[in-house]
Amino acid sequence: MKLRLFGVLLLTAVLAFVTGCGDDNNSLGGEPVPTNTAPPPTNTAAAPTATPVVPPTATPAPPTATQPSGPTATPTGTPEPGGLGTRAFTISTMVTFGGTAQAARSGLFSSALTGGQVSTGFDAEQPMMLVGGTPDADGVASLALAQDEIIAVTQPLGVVCFKLIAAGSSGSIDCDGGTAYDITLTEDPGAGVTPATPMTGQGNPAGAGNADLILMQQSVQLASSATLADCEAATYDPPVMTAYTTTMITATKGAASITGTGEAFDCANFAQTDGPGMLLNPSVANQAEAGGDVANYLRLSDTDPAPAP
User: Fold this and answer.
1) Is pLDDT of 15 > 70?
2) How far is C-alpha 130 from the geometric centre of its chain's CA atoms?
């Protein structure tokens, strides 16, 4: 079994519901400041019934990051000859049945609700186009985003818009397993502290088909009446570097913590729409509306189960 630890990656937390318009430095518009050099996680539980928070509004410039070793992703998203191909990742929206929003695989999850789903609506501009390269001798192929993607997440305090930027995106997918892909984000308690540095390449070597995706991302919070069209026309906060993984994320802010687990791709059928695959992205914030510190993650899935009868 191979163990390939990807290098330190400076990211920002991205959950706009909890991280976009408040006072925390590690918001979706915040600038992660490296606080360590190795990617190890931690976690605990979070306050149960706190009210969801308005994301912070800090907007420092994005950091540079050390990219993981291995194949270099093609920023344009052009498939390599003989590569895994292009996957139209049709981000699932909220499932509604009988007028009630059901738990969906895609969504925004927060320690403010004991790790529960806080989004009441979830919409994507178009399929997220993922490009897989040609696996090398170790079974590792590059992974990149082919075109920008806008996502609108409705939550109790408004609509959070995310813009994922294709230019310069990179990452990898290990088709025979053995690469560690977990992400951890740990920040000191309280407001006004040094923003944490999300770490990639954490945890144990993962199984076949697991991956990570590193890219620049922007966010903005709008009124609760906003739609996806409003997100498309919005003026966003400056971009920050962030990362998604198919394995596990652990986000910790003081005593608040949350963990989530994604889902591996199937390299043999990578280009198949609505196939396996789920990507997670962590963030943290300090918000009075949520009772203080909160930890969150955004989850993007290609498929959803049918609503319960």
Assistant:
1) no
2) 14
